[in-house]
Amino acid sequence: MSAQGLFYSAAFEHVTVTAVQDLFEVQSAADHVVKIHRIIITQEESVTSEQSGVSIQRATTGGSSGSLPSEVPLMKGSPAAGANIEANNTTQATTLTLLHREGFNWLNGWDYRPTPEERITLSASGILVVRLEKAPTSLEVSGTIIWEEIGG
User: Fold this and answer.
1) For 123-150, how does the pLDDT look when each residue is reduced to its tens digit (9 = 90+)?
2) What are phi and psi of 47, to 5 degrees?
């Protein structure tokens, strides 16, 4: 296992959000660990101040009914990602362990960029969700997640 793995991103854009949901769900491969480096949630249409909450949680059972955003290597020529990413699951993951929670204003968006010591690491076959805790009135939301895969 190398000290530094390969980096990937997945994104969704302009999804109308009106319900509480798992904005991202990450499941690491059986032979990899995954480190979360950054998560960005934004909207581009509203000029009205509106608060919401977001959490990062470990799950034992993943959700369903989401989309499958493209998993893109950040270095051209890297192999395909081993992790599975879903976005906008309205049927949410279950049996959760809360790791991080904070409020944010949709005008500013949410940018989770932990220090190296605070990066959340998923063990092999682990599941992590980024949950929108409070639904906005109706917004077109975009999001990006950047992760590192080590092992394999």
Assistant:
1) 999 999 999 999 898 899 999 999 999 9
2) -115, 10
Strand partners, 145: 10, 39
Cβ-contact 141, 32 below 8 angstroms: no
User: Which residues make beta-bridge pairs with 96?
Assistant: 59
Q: Domains of the chain (ranges plus CATH)?
A: 6-151 (2.60.120)
What string of DSSP letters covers 16-40?
Answer: EE-S-EEEEEEE--TTEEEEEEEEE
Closest by alpha carbon to 12, among 52, 48, 43? 43
Rounded to two decimals, the pTM is 0.93
Kindly state the helix (H) or strand (E) to which residue 87 belongs, with its residue range. Answer: strand 84-89
Q: In the numeric block, which tokens belong to residue 77? A: 């020529």
What residue ranges of the chain have pLDDT lower than 50? 1-2
Q: Which residues contact 40 (CB under 8 A, 6 or more apart)?
A: 109, 110, 111, 112, 143, 144, 145
Output the pLDDT for position 1.
38
**Which pLDDT belongs to residue 4?**
84
